[in-house]
Amino acid sequence: MADMAEDPPLVIGSAEGSWLVDTDSNRYLDGVSSMWTNVHGHHHPTIDDAIRRQLDLVSHSTLLGSANAPSIILAEKLVEITPDPLCWVFYSDNGATSVEIALKMAFQYQQQRPDPKPGKTKFIALSDSYHGDTVGAVSVGGIPIFHSTYGPLLFDKITAPAPYLLRCGHGPSYDERYRWCIGELERLMESHGDELAAFIIEPLMQGAGGMIDHRKGYLRHVRQLCNEHDLLLIADEVAVGFGKTGKMFACDQEEVVPDLICLAKGLTAGYLPLAATLTTDRVYEAFLGGPEKTFYHGHTFTGNQLGCAAALASLEVFGAERTLERLAAKTGHLASGLGKLSEHPHIAEIRRQGVMVGIELMRSVEDMIEFPPDTGKKVCRRARDLGVIVRPLGNVVVLMPPLSVTLEEIDLLVDAVATAIDQVTGEI
Ligand SMILES: *Cc1c(COP(=O)(O)O)cnc(C)c1O
User: Fold this and answer.
1) Ligand 1 atom with minimal separation from the 99 CA
2) CA of 5: how far to CAs of 381, 385, 393, in Å?
3) CATH homologous superfamily of domain 12-30+322-427?
4) Non-local CB neighbours of 360 within 8 Å, separated by 6+ positions
5) From the CA of 158, how far away is ligand 1's center (Å)?
6) pTM given for the model
7) Dihedral through CA 316, CA 319, CA 321, CA 327, nearest 10?
8) Domain boundaries 49-320, CATH class
9) For 185-198, how does the pLDDT look when each residue is reduced to its tens digit (9 = 90+)?
């Protein structure tokens, strides 16, 4: 993420609602909700106060060997709001660790379950998936520019083709390409099912891979295949969780229950680092019965009180502000704003789930001719001059406003990005 040759970065001094203010007092709309984390806007009084109140009690005491009140209350709330069979919470402090935990748990579960499956040691994941930057998470990831350097460090996995229909070469129509992707997935599950511990997926929308959205029913189909081949489903909801797709969790959109769910980014509404991995009774019980069955994993700042207090306050705001109920009108407005761009000659595709948007740029969509690889970055730089912060993933421009964004702010965001795209693609 650190390109040493980039423009000097903005130095942010303060923030309010959807707006970031730099140290020269310039205001910018936070169009990617501070790396997909901020849910209710910056400087939210309820969350600010909750952290202050917690600060007056205790900031951190270890969760290793003792407990703390906010982590217990938050665990109860998380169990309440996640799909039903998920009822055990394991805390950590960032998205990658929440994934490492899920991977290790799934692996160990297969060894220790009542009918042990010692051959089930591998993972299956989609191409272009992203699960974090630690070595285990990179092993199940599939983004060449981030991951290829570390090849020799990584463990083996099975890669199924992401249903990235724009770039799937197998068939002229999207329907045929989709069928090919499903066919490949089924074939891989059939031939490797016996050696697979778990399927890890970013439900509905693969974020860092370029905002690759999945068709309705895809996640459900993956769940069904996992059942048929007796493997666990790990839903990495680090990016999509906490309302980003329009419901609290992406799995809710298809009424799918994963065996493990990974939560981070939006968990504290973007205030503090905190993560949680939730699982079911079935998985939990495989770890009971003595030290040789224990899950040996713990992070120093696991279940930190300030983080848990922020997360609890965020859930309170979801209720008090009816955030999810009010979201449909906003995402509808976002969709119609983006709709006006869909005929743009240099926009190959606009992919969206809820507030998560990827605008893929191409010189010629018909002939699949690419722009120079830094075009997305130039568009984002131009948008910044127009008062909007957005980030590129290659030549995909990503928009992800906070759930608290207003309709006027959505207009501003879409207009600035449209202008930036027009100007930059016009100059090439
Ligand atoms: C950001 C992200 C992660 C990693 O989270 P960190 O807090 O950066 O470690 C994992 N999975 C997904 C889907 C993400 O978007």
Assistant:
1) 10
2) 14, 19, 17
3) Aspartate Aminotransferase, domain 1 (3.90.1150.10)
4) 166, 210, 347, 348, 349, 350, 351, 395, 396
5) 20
6) 0.97
7) 120
8) alpha beta
9) 999 999 999 999 99
